[in-house]
Each structure stands twice: as C-alpha cells, then as structure tokens.
Amino acid sequence: VMLPWELWLRTGDERVLARAWPVIERWLEFLESQTIEGVLEFYFDERYTAAVYSFLGDWVPPGGVQAGGPPDAEARFFNNAYRVWNVRTAARIAARLGRAADARHLARRADELAAAVHARFFDPARRVYVSERQTYLALPLLAGLGDAGLREELFLRLVADLETRRHVDTGIHGTWMLTRLLLERGRADLCALVASLRDFPSWGDMLAHGATTIWEQWDGDNSRMHSSFLSIGAFFVEGLAGIRADPEAPGYAHVVLAPCFAPGLSELECELDTPRGTVRSAWRRAQDAVLYSCTIPPLARATLTLPGSARVAAETHVLTLGPGSHEIRIHLDAPERHGPR
Fold this sequence. Notes:
- Helices cover about 40% and strands about 20% of the residues.
- The protein is an alpha+beta fold.
- The protein is globular and about 60 Å long.
C-alpha cells in the first residue's frame, strides 16, 4: 500500500496506483481474515516462514535483541496501528483512481479499526499506547489514532523525549516513522540533532566503529550490511534542503520548500531530479542572515516556508515562487532550536 503511494507522490504517474490496486485489495482482504473485533491477530504461514520471524513490529530498537516467539504487546500494537495507516492510505489511493465507493468504504473501515485499536491498546492512566518509547508516540499520530487533543499531547511528549534523551530510541521501522513525522510537523531541527551524534545509538556511532554500510542493529550485532536505518536520508533532501512533494500536485508540479538552517552547518546545496526537471535548494550563512537560493523547473511552481525565527520583508514567512532561479536574503531573529553539540 505505502510504496505505490510514495511512488505516485514523487512521479505523479497514476498508472503506479492502478497497477497496484488489485494487490492492495487482496492484501487488505487477507488482513480482514485475520481480524477479530477490529484487532489484527498474530498470524504466520508455515509454508513461508516460522512463527519466530512473523508479526515482528518495530525491529530491534536500542538495547533490543532479535527475539522470537509470539509477539509482545508492543508488536501487536505496532502492527495494528500500521494496518490502520495502510487502510487510510488505501482510501486515498481509491479516491485518486476515481473509485469513490471503495474510498468511502475504506475511510469508514479505517475509523472503525482505529476505534478498536484505541480501545484495546490505549492506557488512560499512563496516557500512552502500550509504551512511552518514541516509536509508540510517533506511530499513533501517523495512523490517526485517538482524538486531535491526544495526538498533540503525544507529539509534545515525543519532542520532550528527544530534547532530553538527545538520541533515537527506535528500531528500523520506527526510525522511518519518527523521521517522517518530524519532517511533516516542521521539526527537522530534531532530525538534525540526532543525525549529528557520534555516540550510541546513532549513525555516527556506526561510522566511529568503521562501518561502510548500514547495520541491521544499532549495536552492530548480526548483519552489518542491511537496508535498515536508511530513512535518515530523507532528512537531507526534505529537511535540510526542504524539497518535498505535494499530494495535491504530485510529481513535483508543486514543490514544497521548507529548508532547515541547522546550527553547526554553514552551507548546504541540494539538487533533486524530478519528472519536471531539477529542483535546486541551497543556503549559506552570512552574519545575521542566511542567503537562500533555489531553482524551480519549467511547468512547476513552489511555496517557500521559512522557519519561525526567519523573516524577509514585512515579516513574511511564506513565499510563492514560479519557474526559474530565485535568491532571497533571510534574516534570523533567533537561532534554530537544535543542532550538533
């Protein structure tokens, strides 16, 4: 479900969604066959894999081990919350394909599942879903669990945890979700914080121990060449450079620019090849200002959103840009919130 959506978002090619739709339908039907009272239950197929490596959830957060056997409460919640997110995304795909009845059915089903997952896994005394770890604070927001007030409460707890811990506390999937949520919520500064670290657990710690490929686990146990913690790569393009796609105008027909002027960095330049041409976003510091430049390809437009501490003429924080090259001097009233120490 998620990969076709992400491919469509970046290419604007609806054929990706149309070709994937039959598989999406069968996948969601299978999940329904494993659901009891709105909750997805533990399943595995002996023809494919042993139960020890099924229904895993977030894979090996810091301090974790590759445990087998039936899933614990964290894995059960993780898979159920992600399933809700899948159904919500499938509803958006159906709408894009003009399948209005499917879109309405899936949107209703997502809300029903979200209510069942909330009822089963939310702890009202602790005000969390299963665990206070970062993955289980971020995922409910992405899946749309609980009401808006609860989601904002969980986000503030997540931010406080990152500011205090100053490290990730997530496994392979949770790291992707954490990165995605921070970028969506305009907190690329927190991505900059964890990306700049050199002690455990961090990407810098892998480098300090001679890594030339990404490890499966933060501590280096098991595979040391794994497609695991690659999600931080989105931070460089979508966070520091701030080049993002817009689901209302996919394929970068509308480019969302939201750069992060991270402390500790003096300059940045990024080019992203898109179906409409190359998008360039660059900035460098100059005393109390940042000199920002960008290039928007033909047949595209862009919206530049500046950090809250930045301003141009008349306190403007959002600028609309057309095709071509643009240069803007941005004044910083205060430093960005976080960066390397």
